[in-house]
């Protein structure tokens, strides 16, 4: 097999994308959270009141990493931890009203980021690219 750069390029894209997205959030006046924390909020905006374990699975963040991020977000009043009413051993993550109010603003920044990310791509190229990334992700998570 010839030498490949896929993993290296994905890593670089992730780093640059994170810096660009953080800057775009700042330009939009969103100072309550950063891009990495936005991943957590994105999942919770889709489905609120999730157990930490499920949030970890959906974001791909290790539980220890996620816990520290949740601590900082809770301090800023973006979310809160609540004990599950049926199982007090389980902690659920719930959005605050403040976080819900930021959803539209975040979506505008996210749409602008997508436009930048896919500039010059056709719909067909975007579909093929995303299918390829999903295939790589499946390959990695099957091990």
Automatic annotation (TrEMBL):
PROSITE patterns: HTH_MARR_2 (PS50995). Residues 1-138 form the HTH marR-type domain. Gene3D superfamilies: Winged helix-like DNA-binding domain superfamily/Winged helix DNA-binding domain. It comes from the Bacteria. Keywords: DNA-binding, Transcription, Transcription regulation. InterPro entries: ArsR-like_HTH, HTH_MarR-typ, WH-like_DNA-bd_sf, WH_DNA-bd_sf. GO terms for molecular function: DNA binding; DNA-binding transcription factor activity. Pfam families: MarR. PANTHER family: TRANSCRIPTIONAL REGULATOR, MARR, TRANSCRIPTIONAL REPRESSOR OF EMRAB OPERON. This is MarR family transcriptional regulator.
């Amino acid at each position: 097999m010839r030498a490949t750069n896929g993993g290296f390029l994905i890593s670089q894209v992730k780093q640059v994308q994170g810096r660009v997205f953080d800057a775009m959030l700042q330009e939009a006046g969103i100072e309550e959270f950063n891009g990495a924390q936005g991943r957590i909020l994105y999942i919770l905006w889709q489905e609120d009141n999730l157990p930490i374990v499920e949030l970890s699975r959906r974001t791909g963040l290790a539980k220890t990493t996620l816990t520290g991020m949740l601590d900082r977000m809770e301090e800023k009043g973006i979310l809160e931890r609540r004990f599950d009413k049926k199982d007090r051993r389980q902690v659920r993550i719930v959005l605050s009203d403040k976080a819900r109010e930021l959803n539209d603003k975040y979506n505008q920044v996210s749409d602008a980021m997508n436009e930048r990310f896919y500039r010059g791509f056709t719909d067909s190229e975007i579909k093929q690219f995303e299918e390829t990334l999903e295939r790589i992700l499946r390959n990695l998570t099957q091990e």
